[in-house]
Amino acid sequence: MDWIISDELGLTVGHLVGWGAAGAMIIGGVAPYIPQYRQIKRTQDAEGFSLYVCLTLLIANTLRILFWFGKRYELPLLIQSIVMNITMFVMIHLCVTVRKKNQIIRARERIFTDMDRKYFWAWTDFQSYLDCMLVFSVLGAAITYLLIEFSPFVELIGFLAVFTEAMLGAPQIAKNYQNKSTEGMSLSMVIMWTCGDIFKTAYFVIREAPSQFWVCGGLQVSLDIIILFQVWLYHDNTAAARRLRRGD
Fold first, then answer.
1. For 167-187, how does the pLDDT look when each residue is reduced to its tens digit (9 = 90+)?
2. How far apart are CA 224 and CA 247, in angstroms?
3. Cα(242)–Cα(49) distance, rounded to whole angstroms?
4. How far apart are CA 101 and CA 99, in angstroms?
5. What integer pLDDT is reported at residue 15 of this predicted model?
6. Largest CA distance in the chain
């Protein structure tokens, strides 16, 4: 039986633990990007961080928000999605600003309205990323509004949301493989990803969240482990790249 801390409020240890876990879910999702943000800001180099990580999370969390209207899951998970989308736009803004600043020869501007598939999600202005997600959100909201009563569609949105988020590590894995190095990627971010994903998956199971959440949470943990393996595999190349950057 929970220990009653206040008869007046009916506050129990269970309530405190629940609120603490909910707060950790909201803040914990954002925390891994703080060291990555600081590293990019300090080095003025955004090449080691894949912007497709931001795209993956923006799509996943936008779909999760739409899923909430069809199947009301816990409010902290909805708040987490909103906070995460804001965080991803902050990361994109930093990366676009740094890359523009590092241009030796000013290249042609690439914007969303060019509709050039070759430069999708590689635009040179921040507004294009906002426009792209606005179009995706409006179209998604319109389709969801029309099919909100169709249960298989709602369940599909839920699956796509968590599956997309589960594939979060895939763009970074591809970036590391392409570079044969993890230089520019914050190891602290990946460690926090792993710890957060383990906690999140356990939270989904304990709180009996829809099955899509915890199944894909397990997949996400697996991809985190692959990235940590890449850190070990490319250790020598990463060290050499850092020495080159410092001019040693």
1. 878 888 888 888 888 887 888
2. 31
3. 15
4. 5
5. 56
6. 69
